[in-house]
Design goal:
By secondary structure, this protein is of the alpha/beta class. The protein has a single domain, classed as TIM Barrel. Helix content is 32%, strand content 13%. The strands form 2 sheets. Strands 1, 4, 5, 6, 7, 8, 9, 10, 11 and 12 form a 10-stranded mixed sheet that branches. Strands 2-3 form a two-stranded antiparallel sheet. Strand 9, helix 7 and strand 10 form a beta-alpha-beta unit.
Length: 439
């Protein structure tokens, strides 16, 4: 073989190799850019579930009250997770049975392979990452603190392995007034011992690690909430402390924070305080119930919110949710805010893009308690007398993972914000007839 022939052969082989690599590296396998929140769709990740025997010593936490073994009359979730892909050691028995007589099982967020699989699902469906919830009221209990820290480590590993991004979100909604130091002390310890904000996959914004703080300004008379002075102390520390501060801050606020009506306290100091934020994120689950109402909320509330934030150079992160139900948790009607096979969620995605949002928070990844989960849930939940659960209306269990991945394309301008759900969200059948993810 002459030199020209060898050269042509090498060139041809190189072209084939490059094409092969390009085919393998689909959009869902590329690592997420963790340098900014802009262009991202992030999900809330509760990570609070346990099963008896998982090593956390919390019983069946968040499946039933008091960690009791779930069964008829003892359950607090309205959606049942799809455990098809979970190994036997990731499953925990309950006293429920499926319609075909099979025992019904649940998962635990304390189990490492389960959390890693959740991040794998994010990668497969093009979801950018999650805000990992850290509930301030539970950190005083040793078992809860251990659970929170363990789940955080699982999420760090999952983000690293699957190229996703993540940030921590403190929920301060039940922090008693005058106890701002509880959060400050926890953050100092966590940042010093883990140094997780230095992870390549930890989400940055405006050149700094992003920390989310949820629950500022809510009007709620049945639970203690930190005062605005507490919030000011926390925000000042996190922005300015030379060792544990220097952070970008996202603040979760009531839906009507700007007008200070309905779900928000009426206090002029709130607006002054919120100008310390880098990102403002109003909480909307339950604030509207239909696609039409969601579109109206975007025009009447989100759009003037964005104008207020733009004037002050603050970024705006709207919240979308797929539906809502807390029948087993609160006794309300099942399917209180219907999903409409994804149309309700999609209406909020397109509404957010139309009012100029360049980022979105989908609540939640794994929240089966209030029926807002977007991860894999089954159409064959436990059955029996007096047993009531929602399903995904016959759609594949990854339907809402698909929609959330496509939402990212809309937010980034890769897809138009059309009213109709894109064809790419429709079930795809693999060679074995099983629904397969679309890049």
């Amino acid at each position: 073989m002459g030199v020209p022939m060898i050269r042509r052969t090498l060139i041809f082989s190189s072209v084939v190799l490059v094409a092969f690599i390009a085919a393998c590296v689909s959009p869902t396998t590329r690592r997420v850019d963790s340098s900014t929140l802009r262009g991202k769709v992030m999900c809330g990740y509760q990570g609070w579930f346990n099963g008896e025997g998982d090593g956390a010593n919390r019983g069946y936490n968040h499946w039933a009250r008091g960690g009791a073994r779930p069964g008829p009359g003892r359950v607090t979730v309205d959606l049942w997770p799809d455990l098809t892909e979970l190994a036997p050691n990731e499953r925990f028995a309950t006293d429920f049975v499926h319609a075909d007589g099979r025992p019904a099982e649940v998962f635990s967020s304390f189990v490492r392979p389960t959390v890693l699989r959740h991040f794998q699902w994010m990668r497969e469906h093009g979801i950018d990452g999650v805000f990992i919830q850290r509930f301030i009221n539970s950190l005083g209990r040793p078992a809860s603190l251990t659970h929170n820290n363990t789940v955080l480590e699982h999420c760090r590993e999952g983000a690293r392995l699957h190229g996703r991004t993540y940030a921590l979100m403190y929920d301060l909604s039940s922090l008693a007034p005058g106890h701002a130091d509880r959060l400050i002390d926890d953050w100092k310890t966590l940042a010093r011992e883990t140094r997780f904000t230095r992870d390549a996959n930890y989400l940055k914004h405006r050149g700094k690690p992003l920390l989310a703080l949820w629950g500022c300004g809510f009007k709620d008379n049945d639970k203690p909430r930190p005062s605005l002075d507490d919030w000011r102390k926390i925000l000042t520390f996190l922005k300015n402390d030379p060792e544990s501060g220097q952070l970008a801050l996202m603040i979760g606020v009531p839906s009507f924070w700007r007008e200070q009506t309905r779900d928000c306290i009426a206090d002029p100091a709130l607006h002054e305080l919120l100008q310390m934020a880098d990102v403002i994120s109003p909480w909307t689950p339950g604030r509207y119930r239909t696609p039409e109402a969601a579109a109206k909320h975007a025009t009447d509330v989100w759009q003037p919110d964005v104008a207020w934030c733009n004037e002050r150079r603050i970024d705006y992160l709207p919240v979308a949710y797929p539906g809502f139900s807390w029948h087993n948790l609160k006794g309300d009607p099942l399917d209180a805010i219907p999903r409409l096979q994804g149309r309700f969620l999609w209406s909020q995605v397109t509404a957010a893009k139309r009012i100029g949002a360049d980022m979105l928070y989908v609540a939640m990844f794994d929240e089966v308690d209030e029926g807002t989960a977007i991860f894999k849930c089954t159409n064959n939940p436990p059955a029996g007398p007096g047993v009531s659960f929602l399903t995904y209306e016959g759609l594949p269990s990854d339907h809402y993972l698909r929609l959330t991945g496509l939402a990212g394309k809309v937010i980034r301008g890769e897809l138009p914000p059309t009213d109709a759900i894109p064809a790419a969200a429709q079930p795809q059948r693999g060679m074995n007839g099983v629904s397969a993810a679309t890049p």
